[in-house]
Amino acid sequence: MELSSVIATTGSSVALFRLVNAGIGRLHAPESACRNSWKWRNISTSFVHSFITAVWAVLCFFRHPQMAEDLIETHSVFSHALVSFSIGYFIYDFLDMVCNQKLSQSWELLFHHVVVITCFGLSVVSCRYVGFAVVALLVEVNSVFLHLRQILRMASMAASTLYRVNSIINLGTYVVFRINTLAWMTRWLVLNRDNVPLVAYTLGSVGMAIMTVMNIILFCRLLRSDFLKGSTREAKKEKEM
Fold this sequence. Notes:
Layout: H1 3-26, H2 37-63, H3 77-100, H4 103-126, H5 130-137, H6 140-154, H7 161-191, H8 198-228, H9 232-240
């Protein structure tokens, strides 16, 4: 993809998710979610992105399996478009949080988005490491259930069977598609150190380290909230976040 195509795809993605957000705002929301309507729209929009990206990322390797053998140079237009599309979402979500949420409540996610936009941006512009970026996007398989969990909580369905089933699937996919994927990516980066420029290696290593710490912390919170304590205080805190 040429730079103009990257800009067009990214810009279209930003516009698409703004429309999705606006559309969700026009739909009926549970009464309990109306107390924080922005959060409801934001999480629902993130759910849409996760669903699209999860399916798209899996299809990238299904349609172009040789990409798994060379994550640096080998990629398809289909996978390149996915990374550009996701950059657009992260730009949209970054701006949405900056405009609607206090910095003290969102700085972790804002920092995460800056790291992702930077890494993905370098990838699509240089047309290198696109496969590595697609591997990173496999974590969105878990994000589908992670966002659904938040949606169910906001809808006051934390005591439902659906929530319990989703909690189990969420924790399972968290280990497989988030923790294991990050561990595999870190291992790949170390093993291919000689093939990766110092700047890219440093940026990737720092990014992996930050993501690993953030994901371990989140995993502990999920485990404590859904399986160990189930405290009312945790649930209330999450609703307010």
